[in-house]
Amino acid sequence: MDDKGTKSGGADLTEAFEQCALAMFNYMSPLEHVRPLESRTYRAEGHDLSSLLFAFLDELLFVFSTELFLARSIHITSFDREAFVIEAEGRGETFDRSVHEVGTEVKAITFSAMSIAEREGDAEVFVIVDI
């Protein structure tokens, strides 16, 4: 397996997690071609921030694998840092080869070299995915 790393940031961890999710989807198919026609809800649980990020991305990948749903936007509606639970909504559409460019198949999320950094007004996450 090959690996592809994504470094994403934002004003806080919520935004950094959202940007990381979009980066993963953008590997699969360039998001500029994805229309926000439908929505999906996601829920992920972990036991710390790293496992929560892993579970969140894994849930997004699972929904793509089973429904071919590509999210052009992700909005985390609830980020419980004590119970380590995320709820989110994605807007996008079902992947269609006649409309969307085939990108890189993401096979799995990894914990390898995963990092989460947070400072006042700034957060950054780094995740490697297997392609």
Automatic annotation (TrEMBL):
<dbReference type="InterPro" id="IPR023572">
    <property type="entry name" value="Archease_dom"/>
</dbReference>
<keyword id="KW-0106">Calcium</keyword>
<dbReference type="Pfam" id="PF01951">
    <property type="entry name" value="Archease"/>
</dbReference>
<keyword id="KW-0819">tRNA processing</keyword>
<keyword id="KW-0479">Metal-binding</keyword>
<feature type="domain" description="Archease">
    <location>
        <begin position="4"/>
        <end position="131"/>
    </location>
</feature>
<dbReference type="GO" id="GO:0006388">
    <property type="term" value="P:tRNA splicing, via endonucleolytic cleavage and ligation"/>
</dbReference>
<dbReference type="GO" id="GO:0046872">
    <property type="term" value="F:metal ion binding"/>
</dbReference>
<dbReference type="InterPro" id="IPR002804">
    <property type="entry name" value="Archease"/>
</dbReference>
<protein>
    <recommendedName>
        <fullName>Archease domain-containing protein</fullName>
    </recommendedName>
</protein>
<dbReference type="GO" id="GO:0072669">
    <property type="term" value="C:tRNA-splicing ligase complex"/>
</dbReference>
<dbReference type="InterPro" id="IPR036820">
    <property type="entry name" value="Archease_dom_sf"/>
</dbReference>
<comment type="similarity">
    <text>Belongs to the archease family.</text>
</comment>
